[in-house]
Amino acid sequence: MRRIVILFGPPGIGKGTVGKILSERWKLPLISMGDLLRDNVKNSTSIGKTAEEFMKKGELVPDSIVFEALNDRVKQADASTGFLMDGFPRNLSQAEMFEKIVNEKDSVVLLNLIAQDSILIERLSLRRICKNCGAIYHLKNIPPKKQGVCDICGGELIQREDDRPDVILRRLEVFRNETNPLINYYQGRHRVMAVSAGDNPDNILKRIEELKLWEQKDPTKLKK
Ligand code: AMP
Question: The pTM is what?
Answer without folding.
Answer: 0.93
